[in-house]
Amino acid sequence: MENFWSICLSRFQQELSAQQFNTWIKPLRVETGEHGLRVLAPNRFVQQWVRDRFLQRIESLAEELLNSSGRVELVLMDQVPAAAKEVVPESQPANQPAPKPTAISNAAKSLAQARKHAPAGSGLNPSFNFDNFVTGRANQLARAAALQVAENPGTAYNPLFIYGGVGLGKTHLLQAIGNHLKLQRPDAKIRYLHAERYVSDVVKAYENKSFDEFKQQYHSLDLLLIDDIQFFAKKNRTQEEFFYAFNSLIEAKKQIIITCDTYPKEIADVDERLRTRFSWGLTVAVEPPELEMRVAILLKKAEAARFLLHEDVAFFIAKQVRSSVRELEGALNRIIAMSNFTGRDADVNLAKEALKDLIAVRGRQVTIENIQKTVADYYKIKVAEMYSKKRSRNFARPRQIAMALARELTNHSFPEIGEAFGGRHHTTVMHACDEIEQLRQNDHILARDIAFLVQVIRD
Amino acid sequence: MKQLLLDIQPASPPTLENFVAGRNSEVLHSLQQVLAGDSAVHAVYLWGDSGSGKSHLLQACASRALALGLHLVCADDVHRLDEAAQIRLFDLYNQQRENGGLLIACGTAAPTHMNLRDDLATRLAWGLVYQLQPLSDAEKALALKSHAQARGMRLPDEVVDYCLRHLRRDLPTLMATLDALDEWSLTEQKPVTVPLLRKLLQFPLNV
């Protein structure tokens, strides 16, 4: 049995990333159960994760190696080892929204520690690497080029120019290249910086008359990673300094990698000689991620946060949020926060609730005029009837509904609402609100109409 | 003759404790988590109509961060930033992220619905984003009462009811009315009552 499991472990080690393997597979134990193989998980969280993703693989391995056709049992270990306990969110009874100092805080701490160990001044953040960069059709070319350059800096493509919309992982790629080279050659001089920082460095050098120092700093690098070069627009002095730095680095076969929101020829207000140079090497695009890739990104982010994200929920989020990876992560953050706060399982219902205001972001300001028009249209009467003195039911009822909605959806006072409805007394408005409230309780059709109107007015 | 007032009752400063959360209790909890370092999230963006509590929360977070010695960047009214200010905030955002600092910002619309630069808007959408939900009338009454209590002011229920029936019901209006009513009652040396409030409302209020 032990032999079987060590073979399983080595297979998984090949198939999964180190992080995945250490988190989900390594803590498992196996024993012989009543009906065949029994796998023990340290806690519910790992159990669920393994059941969703790896159990089938374990079963097929058991079939292959042990000729066992029985199902593999996945159960909890009786005692949870203390070490595992620390990083795993304990389930909490519902309706007890106590703070959970669990997974996220640990992730935050380890991130903070990682930052501390980052070499000073390189601008590198070790949490970005090639392993945790999710690849899909949209970015595989850019990733391949980045990896190539990280392996052979200064010789493969120089400069490497990566362009694409916001929040698509350009910075992640830059950082990954830097971290990769740092690992291979710890003594390499690497500098990651945002173009805006370069601009302010030029200004500082200008003010302090310290251009020699400035040049020394940039021209001696082995790898320069510069993000969002479009920020050089209209900054002539910066462009000139960068032109010299660029030439000196390329000449010395030092690698330059640039990101931008558009391709070199299209960069606005940047000197022609720079734009030409930007396309000397290789220019690659990152496109917005397709659905499957968005799902993969979410699962990876959730895993890094040690948050159990069901696949159907990941699909739900990915279908709602399409534009940028940042917004995708923001949506996931909301769901994690809500699940932590309420102690509820993060299912599709919770996701819908958490993302309600992210999805319906229009948030239009509701006005009385708007309410009057919407209600009048709905009941096919003229807007003028909202202010008229006519008291027939056909006009009075819609008018009362509009008044009640004005009270509910705006901050206006009763007198102000009365004024807006043809100068009626505030007690008339109060009476209308009470009456509609009662009708809503008893008349289902009216209640449904009003719910519909609220939706139309809010959107 | 009008009694002159010694301003001995400064309005209570906004804190996370005296924020009447209503349906925003998750927002409050998340902010506390972020400030306590119990969250992997480094940036929070709050949006909602004026009077929904954005500035209160922002100031409360700022003073909490000061007390704890945290490195926090606060940005209010993000929807009003011009091009240069947007680049400045973008820069600050990147710096905070790089250095492990925090950023909390507020505006009147969701990040990508204010015509901000795309790179800034998506960054604001990156951390935790909450729309602040307006308080119900009952919660507004509660907020008025706790505000009155903090001022050491006796506030009868019928005065609260009257305010909610006759005034605009956004919190800044309601709170300003309450403050004015308190001062007026001290000046006139009369208890806070509905007739006193009605008398006050005949004067234009600077709100």
Instruction: Please tell me the overall pLDDT of chain B.
Output: 88
| Count of DSSP strands of chain A | 8
Instruction: Identify the overall geometry of chain B.
Output: elongated
Q: Specify Rg of chain A, calculated over alpha carbons.
A: 31 Å
Number of strands of chain B: 4
**Count of DSSP-assigned helices of chain B:** 8
Q: How many strands, what sense, and barrel or not for the largest sheet of chain A?
A: 5 strands, parallel
The secondary-structure element order of chain A is HHEEHHEHHHEHEHHEHEHEHHHHHHHHHH
Strand-residue fraction of chain B? Answer: 5-15%
Q: Classify the oligomer.
A: heterodimer
Strand order of the largest sheet of chain B: 2-3-1-4
The main β sheet of chain B shows up as: 4 strands, parallel
Span of the ends, CA to CA of chain B? 26 Å
Characteristic terms for this protein:
heterodimer; A: 459 residues; alpha/beta; 5-stranded parallel sheet; 3-stranded mixed sheet; B: 207 residues; 4-stranded parallel sheet; 4 strands
Write a compact overview of the structure shown.
The complex is a heterodimer of chains A (459) and B (207). By secondary structure, chain A is of the alpha/beta class.
Overview of the structural elements:
- The complex is a heterodimer of chains A (459) and B (207).
- With 459 residues, chain A is an alpha/beta fold.
- Chain A is flat.
- Mean pLDDT of chain A is 84; it is low at 79-120.
- Chain A contains 22 helices and 8 strands.
- Chain A has helices at residues 2-15, 18-25, 44-53, 55-66, 82-87, 103-117, 140-151, 170-184, 195-207, 211-219, 236-251, 272-278, 291-304, 311-320, 325-342, 348-354, 356-359, 368-378, 393-409, 414-420, 426-442, 444-458, and strands at residues 29-33, 36-41, 73-76, 160-164, 190-194, 223-227, 255-260, 282-286.
- A 5-stranded parallel β-sheet of chain A has the order 5-6-7-4-8, sandwiched between helices.
- In chain A, helix 13 crosses helix 14, helix 18 (368-378) packs antiparallel against helix 19 (393-409) and helix 19 crosses helix 21.
- By secondary structure, chain B is α/β, with parallel strands linked by helices.
- In chain B, strands 2-3-1-4 form a 4-stranded parallel β-sheet, sandwiched between helices.
- The interface between A and B is large, with 49 and 45 residues.
